[in-house]
Design goal:
There is one protein chain. This protein is α/β, with parallel strands linked by helices. Helix content is about 35%, strand content about 20%. The protein has a 7-stranded mixed beta sheet with strand order 14-15-16-13-12-18-19, with helices on both faces. It has a 5-stranded parallel beta sheet with strand order 9-8-7-10-11, sandwiched between helices. The protein has a 3-stranded antiparallel beta sheet with strand order 5-6-21, with no helix packed on it. Helix 5 links the parallel strand 7 and strand 8. The longest helix has 20 residues. It is globular, with a radius of gyration of 24 Å. The protein starts with a strand and ends in a 15-residue tail after the last strand. The mean pLDDT is about 95.
Length: about 500
């Protein structure tokens, strides 16, 4: 089936006449669909449509905007299973995980729809008599949403839904590896009753479309999730127009295991943190720092469990870890495995692409564990975005915290300990946007802010009410009902 762009409420083909294929990473013989290979012309049409729609949409009362989003949330919930199956086919992660991805979109849409009646401002007493003071939120305009392939419905919902409830319009450019999930999401928004032009979908390569979105003076907000390298480019291209820019980028997350950790629980957490979504999460636990007193016992248990993980098609109920999203991603993981070997880390599990007859048509790689990793090694510093975990020994809690902080990213961190005092010190001293105690580094909930520090982000957060700050701006309003000039701090007031 050939799918089209969605611009100004109409499904249309690109004037390029070009398309690209979307194939199942577990079986490249499975052609999921053919999508539009768009260019700047498509982006320009979408931006123009969003600009026209904004003039109407911003005036729709927020509770009425929310009613459409409530309908959308229920439609997603009604179709959860089919949406999850489509996602597994095009992205690869196991069905339980794609169900979770869709559930996040459901949760976020219901939560943000509720904000249609809760976009609270402030009313404050004025310094002067006969004067009223308050603040209100207002939308910014056309929003460009650029999303990755690893959470192809959850992440778009984190951006698009708060943008809409605040009164903005959207041009959505999804990852080329997962366009079907994006299209399914937009179709539901259309069916829920969004007016034409409020959400527009343009598929195709990131460079040309992304440049058109970031350079357009009509676009007032850019929300991007992806690599730090691309995020830096987005930041530079938008700086001249003073756009509001939200960047959610890389991570090199750490789980710290202290000598008093519950090892069975810690092993389970490290398996899920390291190999969930085949390690293709910005919050993946790719570093495990283990106290020397329990290092050997933990490593033996962890390696045994990791090596026993069943790798295969995510639609197979027996599969515990699916394929990587593409051959390029598999090759990137293989290069990092070779880097780890050359650096002197000890390979104790996996380390190879899977190429036997069972895996011949997919992008599979073994769960891989390196032991005795030095914190300065590249495999312990750089985001691999695959099923590779580095286990690093430490001698103390203080050293574990130092190792945890000693990377360029600051998204998520975790500690396993029974000592509440150490848990609180770690909570304070790990410089990350997310922190867990006795749980892995993944599993964010939609009603709390999501984002990171350092090279992970630029200070904004998505999810929770913090997302409203990205997609709205404050206006302070003063109403003088004195009938005369009052000059604020200049004029005194008699008591």
């Amino acid at each position: 089936m050939t799918y089209q762009n969605f611009i100004d409420g109409v499904w249309v083909s690109s004037p390029t006449g070009k398309t690209f294929e979307n194939r199942n990473p577990a079986d490249d013989r499975d052609l999921i669909g053919v999508f539009q290979q768009s260019d700047r012309r498509d982006a320009a049409q979408a931006i123009e449509a969003a600009g026209r729609a904004f003039r109407r949409w911003r005036l729709v009362p927020a509770p009425r905007r929310a009613e459409i989003l409530f309908r959308a949330a229920q439609l997603i919930a009604d179709r959860k299973e089919s949406l999850a199956r489509d996602m597994t086919r095009e992205m690869g992660k196991v069905l339980d995980e794609t169900r979770g991805d869709v559930q996040e979109a459901i949760d976020m849409t219901f939560f943000m729809a509720g904000e249609g009646r809760r976009q609270y401002g402030q009313t404050v007493p004025s310094e002067l008599r006969d004067k009223f003071a308050m603040s209100v939120r207002q939308p910014l305009g056309v929003t460009a949403v650029i999303t990755p392939w690893n959470f192809p419905m959850a992440i778009p919902s984190w951006k698009i839904i708060p943008a809409l409830v605040c009164g903005n319009t959207v041009v959505f450019k999804p990852a080329t590896l997962t366009p079907l999930s994006a299209l399914n999401f937009v179709k539901i928004l259309e069916e829920a009753g969004l007016p034409p032009g409020v959400v527009n979908l343009v598929t195709g390569g990131g460079a040309e479309i992304g440049d058109a979105l970031t350079s357009s003076r009509e676009v007032r907000v850019v929300s991007f999730t992806g690599s730090t390298v691309v995020g830096r480019t987005v930041s530079e291209k938008t700086a001249g127009d003073f756009k509001k820019v939200h960047l959610e980028m890389g991570g090199k997350n750490v789980i710290m295991l202290m000598e008093d950790a519950a090892l069975d629980l810690a092993v389970e957490g490290c398996l899920w943190g390291g190999f969930g979504t085949t390690g293709q999460r910005c919050t993946a636990a790719s570093r495990v720092v283990v106290h020397e007193r329990v290092y050997r016992e933990f490593l033996d248990r962890f390696v045994a469990r990791a090596c026993a993980l069943r790798v295969g098609d995510g639609l197979d109920p027996a599969t515990q870890m699916g394929p990587l999203v593409s051959a390029d991603q598999r090759d990137s993981v293989a290069r990092y495995v070779e880097i780890g070997r050359k650096e002197g880390a000890r390979l104790v599990c996996g380390g190879h692409a899977l190429t036997s007859d069972k895996y011949a048509h997919g992008c599979f790689h073994e769960p891989t564990v390196f032991a005795d990793v030095a914190p300065s090694m590249r495999i312990a510093q750089e985001e691999i975005f695959g099923p590779v975990v580095s286990v690093i020994p430490c001698r103390s809690f203080e050293e574990a915290v130092e190792i945890g902080n000693n990377v360029e990213y600051g998204l998520s961190a975790s500690i396993y300990t029974q000592d509440i005092n150490r848990a609180f010190v770690a909570m304070r001293d790990l410089y990350t946007g997310i922190f867990y105690v006795n749980a892995p580094t993944i599993g964010a909930e939609v009603h709390l802010p999501f984002g990171g520090t350092k090279n992970t982000g630029n200070g904004h957060r998505e999810a929770g009410t913090a997302a409203l700050e990205v997609f709205s701006e404050w206006k302070s309003v003063y109403i003088d009902f004195s009938g005369r000039l009052q000059r604020a701090q200049i004029d005194g007031v008699e008591v």
